[in-house]
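Case study 2.
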Amino acid sequence: MARKPPTLKTVKKLFALSGNVCAFHDPQCNENMVDEKGNVIGKICHIEAANKKGERFNEKSNDEVRRDFDNLILLCDKHHIETNNVVKYKVDVLQKMKEEHEMKFINNKFKVTDDTIADAIIKYEKSYTQINTNIGGIQVNQQADTIINNIVTDEKQELTIIDGIFNYVLKQLNEGIGKDYKPDVNLNLPDKIKLNFKSTDEQEAVVEYFKYSFTKYDLIRRRFEILDTEYQKDIHSHIFGVYQELKTNSLSNLDILHTLFKVFTPTAKKGNSIYMNLAKAFVLFFFEDCTIFEKTKAEKIQQTKLDL
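Prediction:
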């Protein structure tokens, strides 16, 4: 299983307490983590490696602990490499280094712009797909995966995050990402389509939707997975609630799917073919992950195992 990236909330805190400088000291390093143009140049590193072959890997730990704030430290390229020396830089040494560095900025937190946040997310995603981040030492999430998301607390929180996901995907597509990798395949998907859409015409239509949303769909999946767990739950709940409401209107499953496409197209982008296709990909992601529509027998068994 691939390691889990840190959440938005975690990376926000990590950069806020960095003072925008490398955490290495003895001697103190003054290399910036974000340059004057807002480009992320630092590295988010694991103290205890996220993968078995990494340095300081702890068999007794788990994925959630490994990606937690306490196990992450911001370093420059030079000191990321230097701390590969596990004899000199044991876990307790790096933990102390991190703690002492962050205490310096507890009352003077580093602030970054929204543009920097977007840049950080894109750079992280590129490196995450291109590198199987086991580079021999402190593991790199090559870059500010998520430096920060502005936490929205009003009733528009879910839609704000959804808009952010759409914007992220558009930026990825503009940069050409998605052309050199193959998304994971859900072996249950053909059965799920047949289960929920009875006629051949309906099944073929849904298959076509997946076909045309292929790259966008997988980018949405990857972006969604790095959201804070509570945000993920909020969005799942929101999508499921809309779906359940539509079910009470005696619509066919295909009509429900079409209505969901419309609901999740941003209001200001109605009629925009790019955003309409993004909305399709967004809804299909939640179709495939079992949030909406009936589950196959295999999916129900898998869900039962996850709930145990």
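The longest strand covers residues 43-46.
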